[in-house]
Design a protein that fits this description.
Elements: H1 13-25, H2 29-39, H3 42-45, H4 51-80, H5 84-101, E1 109-110, H6 113-129, H7 151-162, H8 171-195, H9 207-230, H10 242-252, H11 259-281, H12 292-307, H13 309-313, H14 333-364, H15 371-386, E2 394-395, H16 397-405, H17 412-428, H18 437-447, H19 449-452, H20 458-464, H21 466-481, H22 484-504, E3 508-514, E4 520-522, E5 529-530, E6 534-540, H23 549-560, H24 564-583, H25 598-602, E7 609-615, H26 624-638, E8 643-647, H27 651-659, E9 674-675, H28 678-687
Parallel strand pairs: 6-7, 7-8, 8-9
Antiparallel strand pairs: 1-2, 3-4, 3-5, 3-6
Organism: Atrichornis clamosus
GO molecular function: secondary active sulfate transmembrane transporter activity
Family: Belongs to the SLC26A/SulP transporter (TC 2.A.53) family.
């Protein structure tokens, strides 16, 4: 039977677009109110805040995150190549802005190791191009507002003039100028992506790509911190192959290791790892995680200060951290042009991590988020703080897990965390002067445990899906050995290639009938399937388009053991020989048979079927090449008196076949060529003479 299709009313897209445009451009008080409420979700949920029910969990989680944020902010400043005060600014402003604009109740937005690394790589590159020395302990090329007369300062002044910065701006000033310009452009990209609803870009970052990128970047972060662990002074490597070059420099200078830093690092890592392992093991008994990082920083600072480790053992310390806020400043436009390309991967990674974490916890706690609003939120978490000497932010998984485990209910906890950071900014920052950099490096390295543990999951991942494992390995290797941005791009391209290859060479099979049923399955995969006499059933498990056309034909000919083109050529050749014999008056054929017997020779013994059923249930679409391919096999097999029947086609495939003229001009023979189940097609083939 042939099912009757519904008649769809054609929509005038132009009218629809104009109607939407008129609706969008209209402005009423209610619409303005809804727009403001949607843009600042806090106005919707804060009036409904259940103080007695939520306040304790929010305050507790906010305090714990604030305590964790302070040491992490100071530590991640090493990754970004900036002073610790800028990391504290970033943590403060990001929490306040996300409180106002975010739709997730649980994610913790602030500094994130991968984002800090990407910022730091751009900052280091631009500092080198400007003529600065990347050595952390090197004296500034331009100091305290006065120009020095050495050659390095001349080079620096020349380069700074080119990019439009005042020549009196020193290394620290130029570094934060680059970081704020990069952050501003990344935020603008994110807001534009929100306006044009380009959130679908995140779909191309699969879980394997993100995991591989995070693991590869973690190896880069680990490598960058080793010099602080052992207290050696080596140049900060830039460009492709940074990981390999850095390790070569480390081994070349290993003899210069600072014994004080080595001992301190060993003790700190032992304490941090032990505390983390105990925390993971007994987390169900702990009401909140142990503030190990803060304890380590406080103890290490006291030991360094009273032991005078910097003066006696030349151990590198954090140095002076000012209190209060630096006056806001507009990011330099000329610098924005220099970092515009670098800001794009930064914007995408920041958005993807934020939205993926938001969706994960929204699903876990049974509420919804708005991905587009999340893009606006994280965009303004970058744009606004860039005026206040802050750099790029993102949601972080580790801190979000801590938030949820300590009873977080809403983003009020983010405000509490911001107040803790503000307290440090206004009063406590100078107390960290004597904190050794090796301690900060230990905190960063231990925080990478989750990403580095992905190596243990490789066997299980390989067992689950070999292609995804290959994507993970390629992305991780490119991110670590080339650069993080190139690694992300390589991962996206390679994962797409894997999908293309899967559709180019999909599974194909001949089907057999499950005994005494109307169902059919792959006869190579299942036992006790019966073959259907005189009928071959072919399944192709992919869309049929230009890239896999040849594979479709080769698989069909191989499985049916018949190439209709070769068979037609063989028959023509045989007929030609017969005609030649007849012209010579020989009534015996080349095979010694009579003329009446030659027709038997025209049908080869290997053709053991009279109908070919193509199972189209896995063919999601056809392009022009796909339609022409089906028309070609229909014609070729018809020349051999073999009918081709299509089964289980979806409506879009049927429409493509109609438009391509597969059924002829009047569609009258559709019911003899198209069937809604394989069994109907088989029954029809059996009834044919």
């Amino acid at each position: 039977f042939l099912m009757e299709r519904k008649t769809h009313v054609r929509i005038n897209r132009k009218e629809v677009m104009l109607a939407k445009l008129r609706k969008s451009c209209s402005c009423t008080p209610q619409k303005l109110k809804n727009f403001i409420m949607d843009f600042f979700p806090v106005l919707r949920w804060l009036p409904k805040y259940r103080c007695k029910e939520y306040i304790w969990g929010d305050v507790m989680s906010g305090l714990v995150i604030g305590i964790i944020l302070v040491p992490q902010a100071i530590a991640y400043s090493l990754l970004a190549g900036l002073k610790p005060i800028y990391s504290l600014y970033t943590s403060f402003f990001a929490n306040i802005i996300y409180f106002l604009m975010g739709t997730s109740r649980h994610v913790s937005v602030g500094i994130f190791s991968l984002i800090s690394l990407m910022v730091g790589q751009v900052v280091d590159r631009e500092l080198l191009l400007a003529g600065f020395d990347l050595n952390d302990d090197a004296p500034p090329a331009l100091g305290d507002g006065s120009l020095q007369n050495n050659s390095l300062s001349n080079t620096t002044a020349f380069n700074l003039t080119i990019v439009g910065i005042n020549a009196e701006c020193g290394k620290e000033c130029y570094a934060i100028g680059i970081a704020t310009a990069l952050t501003f452009v990344a935020g603008v990209y994110q807001v534009l992506m929100g306006i044009f609803r380009l959130g679908f870009v995140s779909m191309y970052l699969s879980e394997s790509v993100l995991d591989g990128f995070a693991t590869g970047a973690s190896l880069t972060i680990l490598t960058a911190q080793v010099k602080y662990l052992i207290g050696i002074k080596i140049p900060r490597s830039q460009g492709h192959g940074m990981l390999v070059i850095t390790w070569i420099n480390i081994f070349r200078n290993i003899s210069q290791a600072n014994l004080c830093d080595v001992i301190t690092s060993a003790i700190c890592i032992a304490v941090l790892v032990t505390a983390k392992e105990l925390g993971d093991r007994y987390k169900h008994k702990l009401k909140f995680p142990l503030p190990t990082e803060l304890v380590v920083i406080v103890v290490a600072t006291l030991v360094s200060h009273y032991g005078k480790l910097n003066e006696v053992y030349a151990s590198s310390v954090s140095g002076a951290i000012p209190t209060g806020f630096i006056p806001p400043k507009v990011p330099e436009f000329n610098l924005m042009l220099r970092v515009a390309v670098d800001a794009l991967p930064l914007a995408i990674v920041s958005f993807v991590f934020t939205v993926s974490l938001s969706e994960m916890f929204a699903k876990k706690y049974a509420y919804t988020i708005r991905a587009n609003q999340e893009m606006f939120a994280v965009g303004f978490c970058n744009i606004i703080p860039s005026f206040f000497h802050s750099f790029a932010t993102s949601a972080a998984l580790a801190k979000t897990l801590v938030k949820t485990s300590t009873g977080c209910q809403t983003q009020v906890s983010g405000v509490i965390s911001a107040m803790v950071v503000l307290l440090v900014l206004l009063f406590l920052a100078p107390l960290f002067y004597s904190l050794q950099k090796c301690v900060l490096a230990c905190i960063i390295i231990v925080s990478l445990r989750g990403a580095l543990r992905k190596f243990r999951d490789v066997p299980a991942r390989y067992h689950m899906n070999k292609a995804d494992t290959l994507v993970w390995v390629v992305t991780m290797s490119a991110s670590a050995l080339v650069s993080t941005e190139i690694g992300l791009l390589v991962g996206i391209v390679f994962s797409m290639l894997c999908i293309i290859v899967r559709t180019q060479r999909p599974r194909t099979a001949l089907l057999g009938q499950i005994q005494d049923t109307a169902f059919y399955e792959d006869d190579l995969e299942y036992e006790n399937l019966s073959t259907v006499p005189k009928v071959k059933i072919f399944r192709f498990e992919a869309p049929l388009y230009y890239a896999n056309r040849n594979y479709f034909l080769k698989s069909l000919y191989r499985l049916t053991n018949l190439d209709p083109n070769l068979e037609a050529a063989r028959r023509k050749k045989y007929e030609k020989k017969e005609k030649q014999h007849l012209k010579k008056g020989n009534h015996r054929t080349a095979n010694g048979l009579g003329i009446g017997e030659t027709t038997l020779q025209l049908v080869p013994k290997q053709i053991d079927f009279q109908a070919l059923v193509v199972d189209c249930s896995s063919i999601s679409f056809l392009d022009t090449t796909g339609v022409n391919t089906l028309k070609e096999i229909l014609k070729d097999y018809k020349n051999l008196n073999i009918s081709v029947l299509l089964a289980c086609c979806n409506p879009s495939v049927i429409d493509s076949l109609k438009r391509g003229g597969y059924f002829g001009g009047d569609f009258g023979c559709m019911q003899e060529m198209l069937f809604y189940s394989i069994h109907n097609a088989v029954l029809f083939a059996k009834d044919q003479k």
